[in-house]
Amino acid sequence: MGEKFIEKFKHSKLIFKMVLILAISLVITLTTISIVVINQVVIVSKDNINSMIKTKAELKASQVQTALGDGFELISDLQEYLEAYFEDALHKTEDNLLNSKVYPQMLTSRSNITIENYILNTGWSIVRNNENIDGLRLYFEPYTINTNQETYGMEIFYKNAQDNSVIPINNYNDYSTQEYYSIVKNTHEPYITTPTFQDGKSVFYIAYPILQNDEFKGVVVIDLLTSSFENINLSKNDYDTLTSTLLNENLDIIYDASNPEKINENMSSSLDAASLKEWKAKTILNKPFKITTKQRDKKTFERYLYPISVSDQTWWAQVGVEKNELYKNIYELIFGISIASVIAIVLLVCIIIKAIAKFLNPLEKVVVAAKKISNGDLDISLDLPYNDEIGILGKAFESMTHSLNYIVSDIEKVLAAMADGDFIILEYGQTDYMGAFAPIKQSLIKISNKLNETLSNIDRSSKEVKAGAEGIAKAATELSLCSNEQGAIISEFIATTDQISESINTAIEQIEQTSAISLGAKLKANEGTQAMKNMLISMEDITNSSITISSILENVETISQQTNLLAL
């Protein structure tokens, strides 16, 4: 498959190759840039989102700390004052007894009246001027304030603060069984309850112990409204799944404005086991942290927690958003960047195809011109619109064809002149043979000179052959005369032979007639024999003359053939 594609690619058009290479390069480049940009955008966006949510969690913690600060400060001051009172004045013997401000029917010392006045004035002021505090409670152990009074306790609420009244507690069991009293009594440590609903209000209690030499004397309790945290709620304009809760150290929900029904619910009821374990491990460090939790309903939340120091406990301001929604904008941004990148790649590829096609279109004209030149057609004209490399190439092609036309025309004239026998016209030619064509002119000059020299030699040789032919003709004439003489001799020889034959016949007749004549015939026969010898000698001479004539004729024929060749 790959080899076929490579082979097909090799034989494809230049525009296809360029577009393919540029498109692949563009896709790789833009994809790499997009990945880098998307990665950086994701990192920066996540950092910004995390920073924003973390800041919100920190702000929430700071606001909670501020909201609780006044209450803790007031209750701490009241605790210290009462402990100092027990150290200095609780058992002082005083003769002047006055009616108690809390229990009017009870007589108590002036010192107790003083402490009651301080408690009442402080309590009224706290409840009246602090909208976050719904009430102030003081409960004591039996006979702590007055040896004649078993139960001593008081409660001040907003209504009491308005009319400077107080609610006395007459039964010890009414408060001794409450967790904010019993737990503090047993631990001697401050205690904060989980929220409870009282008169339609969500309230949690902050209880501080009153100690004298580590002996428990009672508690100071502030009723703190969870509505005091309403001003620190986070807007859900940005995220529909945004949760903002206040958790105690046991991960009980102290406050959740969005879901009030979850107050007092423990986070373990909504988290899976692994997330809860990781959460608890991180809270041990008492440092801000971020955690990704999985809910029992399979949803994933990104949570940011910031610690809040509440007395000797650590509460947590928690801000959480469902992960898909938290990073929704990032996912949309990634999708947008991806779509934009794809569109940009497609547009750029289209633009490149159009641009390359437009700029390489003149190259097609050059290719057509090159094919015409290869087929021997030098009559071309290129009208190229650009003066770039292709335009320069086209002009070079036109210049080349013009030069070739001039050279071909010049060579045609030279050959025509040579055909007419003019072998020196090239030396006076006006056409300039440039570059690699220069040797052609030199070769034509050499050919002309060589042909001129050769024809001169042929002319000279033909003259010599002519002279030789005249000599041969003269010799042939003489040979012809000799042949005539030989013919006469042969004729004479034939006549002589006839005569001899007649003589022999006559002699034979005479021999038959007479023996006398035999001797004469014998003599005649001897003479005939001698004549025969002479005849043989003559025939041998004739034969030698014939051989000589044949040799001369062969020489003449050879000379004639050479003359014909030279003539050709």
**Shape call:** rod-shaped
Relative helix content: 55-70%
Low-confidence stretches: none
Q: In the CATH hierarchy, what is the architecture of the domain at 89-228 at level 2?
A: 2-Layer Sandwich
Q: How many DSSP H or I helices?
A: 12
> Strand-residue fraction?
15-25%
Mean residue pLDDT: 77
CATH superfamily of the domain at 89-228: PAS domain
SSE class: alpha+beta
Radius of gyration, CA atoms, in whole angstroms: 72 Å
The end-to-end span amounts to: 66 Å
Tags for this model:
5-stranded antiparallel sheet; Beta-Lactamase; 568 residues; alpha+beta; 7-stranded antiparallel sheet
Topology:
Elements: H1 2-10, H2 14-88, E1 97-99, E2 107-109, H3 110-129, E3 133-140, E4 152-157, H4 158-163, E5 167-168, H5 173-176, H6 179-187, E6 191-192, E7 196-198, E8 201-212, E9 215-225, E10 243-247, E11 253-256, H7 273-283, E12 289-294, E13 300-310, E14 313-322, H8 323-326, H9 328-374, H10 389-419, H11 438-513, H12 516-567
Antiparallel strand pairs: 1-2, 3-4, 3-9, 4-5, 6-8, 7-8, 8-9, 10-11, 10-14, 12-13, 13-14
Helix pairs in contact: 2-3, 2-9, 9-10, 11-12
